[in-house]
Each structure stands twice: as C-alpha cells, then as structure tokens.
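Below is our example:
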Amino acid sequence: MAGKESKLQSMRVLENFPAAVLADIQSVFENGGALSHERCQSVMDALGISAGVLMQRLLPLTGLYASAQISGSQVGAVVNAAMSPDDSDVALFLGANIEFPGQSLAQTIHAEQAAVVNAWLAGAGQIDSIAVTATPCGYCRQFLYELKNCRNLNILLCDQRGGRTTRRRLTNLLPAAFGPHDLGHEGGLMGPPHPAIRLKLDGSAEDPVVFEALSAASKSYAPYSGNFAGCVIETTEGKMYAGRYAENAAFNPSVSPLQAAFIQMTMDTPGGQKKIRRAVLVEIPTAISQRTICELHLNPIGPDVTLEYVEARVG
C-alpha cells in the first residue's frame, strides 16, 4: 500500500475510536501489530466492552497491513493470546493476508497464519480465540488445528457490514479433523515447552545475523521432519526480523522460516516498504530443506538479495 494511501486509510480507521482510547489503539502500530495486556485492559475499561468485542473493533486495523496486489481483497484476523502460564496476561495480535506478485497463489500467507505467527514469535503460549473478517478457508482451519488448544479454540466470525458476530468452535468448522495426534505427536504449536534444542555451527557464529537465525532455528516447531530452521531478514536500516519454521500435520499449511520473518517485518510497519539488505537461513537439513522455498519467497521481496545458507547441527 502506498504511503499516502496508507495514512488516509489509517485516519479513517482511527476515526471509529473515541479520543480517550486513541493512544492505546495507536500503540498497535508501534508494537508489531499487537495490543499489550495493559493496553487491552485500558481500552476495555474505558469503553466497557469485552475482549471479544475489542477484537472485532480491531479488525479494520488489519487492512492497513494487508498486501493484496493479486486479489485486491484485504483479509484480517485478530488472535487472543495468553502471554503467561496462568493465562492471566492476555494480549491481542493482528494479522493480514500477504500475497507475492509473480509467484504462485500457493505461496500466499493467510491472515490467520499471520496473526498466529505474530503471536508465536512474540512468545505467546496459547491462543484461545481468533476473530476474522471472513469465514476461515479449509487451509486455515487445518493450520489452526495444529495449535495446542485447537479443540477449545473459538472462531469469531464478524460481519463487517451488519455488525453481527457469530462464535463457533474450530472443531465444529472442521469435523473429522486430521491433526498432530494422527501422526503420533501429542503436543502442538505453542504446546508445552520441550527441552531446548541446542544447535551449533561448524563455523563461527560471531555474525549477529547468523547467530539470530541460529537462535530462531532452535525454537522451530518441526515434530514431523526434525528440520529445525530459522531465517533472518536484515533491512538497509540495520533492523533484523527473525522467523522460524512451523510445521503442520497436513504438511501444506506449514509456514517457512522466511515467511515467518516476513510476517514480522510486515506487522512492524503497516503499509511500509522496507528494503532488504541480507537474508540468512540456518537449518538442520533432514529429509527436507527450507533452502529452495526460502529462495522462492525471497525473490519478490528482495530480488537483488541472495539467500545466505548455513547448515547447523545438534550439539
């Protein structure tokens, strides 16, 4: 979205909020597309609304992050995520559809994926509900079924025109589902923490970008392939965005580490265009590798950048 157009859309969206909560709402733009627990509570108290209603009110903001050059359709999602073990510290995370011009439609990042990954990268431990601007497609229902709390996950279907909200359980939208337990995995994305995977490089990890990618790889969710992989995008401004691989039992809804890094970069600046200077992938190659798919995802967003590839090992 062009800068001028983005500002105009931002002004139109913010007009829907009372002046008393504008500072809290605008913090979303400074916090990677997230509304902290304290900000959420402040807005809910000021407006006398529930978290579910606030999620619905935030949905128009997601359009500011959408990249829909192919479809022309902005799709958004807001997740309610627990940031503490006792679920008392809850924050809201935004996500939007991200399309890659010139690439196959299969490379598109769906809004639900963007919102979940945004929360996951920020350290969320569980997602209890997700509000969406349109009914989740089958692909997204499958992606959401990988979450640890999938059987209790509530989907808030928000009619932007009529203002009505319908609450449905994910399991009602995805009957006879196929998930992690069918492949012998009892955990799930954002599941109980497992012993940290210690990864090492054969060479030096003094390069801060490589080290950040190595750290991201160690936090991957790769129960089916063991392909721990992390990717870092560095902009010309020197800012780094780290992403990590998230697998899915059905394989196809998996999110590549570069997609995850790009989600973080997109959610950092709504409508902004950042020039990429470097992209580094660190992984443990197994029966699969992220190298080819990351090169594919890098091409439309950094056509002049060559993906730097580093192999790691468990150590």
Summary: The chain has a mean pLDDT of 91. The first strand starts at residue 34 and ends at 35.
